[in-house]
Amino acid sequence: MNKIKSPFLWAFLLFVLPIFIHAVSIKGVWITRWDIYSESHIYEIIDSLSKANVTDAFVQIYGSGTAYYDSKIAPKKYADFDPLSVFVSYAHEKNIRVHAWVNLLYMWDRQEMTDDEMHIVNRYPESVLVDDKNISMLDYSIERLKTRNIEGIYVSPSSEIVYDYLIFIIQEILNKYSVDGIHLDYSRFPGREFVYDRNLKTDYMRKYVIGYEELNDLNTEKLFGKSGLNALKTCWQRLPKEQLNQLIKNIYTDIKAINPNVQLSSAVIADVESAEMNYYQNWWEWIANGYIDFVVVMAYSPSLNVLKKQIEKINTKTSLENVVIGLGTYNQTVFDVKANYEVLARYPVMGFCLFSNQSIYEKRGSYTYIGNTIFK
């Protein structure tokens, strides 16, 4: 069956078929780590999800370099309580799939650094990203980073140490818990100004037998010519994306080797131009190359026009069958979410995911309303 990729054709179909709602396979909700603080509260959340006909729970169990499960690798949030074990057990009783949500590269978000020796930035400070002057993000204040719209401290996707550490985390989860998926977040660079770590530079030198610093040397242009130098600079600009792609591919391969039934997904930037230009997150290539099972695009804007434009641009990059649309519930009412959903559900997407549980749970009746309307 031929897939429709033209955004203009989809816009036409949306106009002439106003009552068609595409059947979806994922009706999801993101549950942040701040929501899984007690056994009783987890039970209440899952009961609410069940009432809302939720099929998939994306539960954050590794954030800021801290584990919200029984880890021997990362520092644990709770010494005598295992939120993931409780969540998986009860959610499966309610026929809800559980995706273990892991912050991949974003490791710290507070001004005062942790002194826990098990934390990745303390164990491997050399893995933290640096700027073009070789200044580590550890030497930036969190406030200074946030003025650049950067959440906090990131580690390098090019680092073999980081890769091994993340794989150990994922293996630990898969070997201890019967989760249905691994869900990555912050699977990207923090911005264009932090792509100069030595791991990336070393890989560049291995591939092209020239150092990054030499790209601005006059002798390099004399040696390779202007066109040759431009080609080398293009290769450097392409390398962060390639390194990130390789990391996702390796994680996918390792997960499937452990359990081929576990799905790998990632929350991704909805604006494909921004994803590529600002964060090197060419996630549509992950889909095309079979590096991931599906993505959840963070389409949080309350504006239906913005959302439609984002989806139509996505459809120029990839078909929508492996795309779940993530809608914001924290910045609009559930009635507004329903109105947007009714339009967006006419696209042939894989499903929808709501961000987040906290904003829904705190509004009495919201989950019941979602079950009777959006996820009916």
Automatic annotation (TrEMBL):
InterPro entries: Divisome_Glycosyl_Hydrolase, GH, GHL10. Transmembrane segments: none annotated. Residues 26-321 form the Glycosyl hydrolase-like domain. Keywords: Signal. Coiled coil: none annotated. Pfam families: GHL10. It comes from the Bacteria. PANTHER family: GLYCOSYL HYDROLASE DIGH. This is Glycosyl hydrolase-like 10 domain-containing protein.
